[in-house]
């Protein structure tokens, strides 16, 4: 079975995009290899996002905040899909992506901005995780070899 590389982008690559990477990499369909990056990456991955990624089965030591420039290099993995998960990254000028991958914006509020108890913060992260999971489940059920950017964008309205 062919596996598809999917890159999740967000400005700081510390929460939403990391959750996307973990969900794709651990998706039960086995159809995806997840990656994440940001336009201005932070210094670390949000600890709540890292905890959730680990709960999903992702090796925590593989998680790091990285620049999207890493994925525009000649020897980088070729992406099949690129998904922005925050409004800032969706509006930024992205680097050239070799292979012309299908792109979409699946926007979610930043869970790291939630104020409140630890339970309230974790609930915000889980809400993003569940939304991304719904979209990945829909994506996995589609004929991936035939998808284009329009089809990928439609997943946002179905989830």
From TrEMBL:
<feature type="domain" description="Phosphotyrosine protein phosphatase I">
    <location>
        <begin position="4"/>
        <end position="142"/>
    </location>
</feature>
<dbReference type="InterPro" id="IPR023485">
    <property type="entry name" value="Ptyr_pPase"/>
</dbReference>
<protein>
    <submittedName>
        <fullName>Protein-tyrosine-phosphatase</fullName>
    </submittedName>
</protein>
<keyword id="KW-0059">Arsenical resistance</keyword>
<dbReference type="GO" id="GO:0046685">
    <property type="term" value="P:response to arsenic-containing substance"/>
</dbReference>
<dbReference type="Pfam" id="PF01451">
    <property type="entry name" value="LMWPc"/>
</dbReference>
<dbReference type="InterPro" id="IPR036196">
    <property type="entry name" value="Ptyr_pPase_sf"/>
</dbReference>
């Amino acid at each position: 079975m062919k596996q598809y590389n999917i890159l999740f982008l967000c400005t700081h690559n510390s929460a939403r995009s990391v959750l996307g990477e973990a969900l794709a990499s651990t998706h039960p369909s086995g159809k995806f290899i997840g990656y994440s990056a940001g336009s201005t990456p932070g210094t670390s991955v949000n600890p709540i996002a890292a905890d959730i990624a680990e709960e999903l089965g992702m090796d925590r030591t593989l998680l790091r905040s990285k620049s999207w420039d890493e994925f525009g290099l000649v020897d980088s993995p070729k992406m099949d899909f690129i998904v922005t998960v925050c409004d800032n990254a969706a509006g930024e000028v992205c680097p050239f992506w070799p292979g012309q991958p299908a792109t979409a914006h699946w926007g979610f509020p930043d869970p790291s901005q939630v104020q409140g108890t630890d339970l309230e913060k974790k609930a915000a992260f889980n809400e993003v995780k569940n939304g991304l999971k719904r979209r990945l489940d829909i994506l996995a059920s589609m004929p991936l070899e035939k998808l284009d950017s329009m089809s990928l964008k439609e997943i946002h309205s179905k989830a």
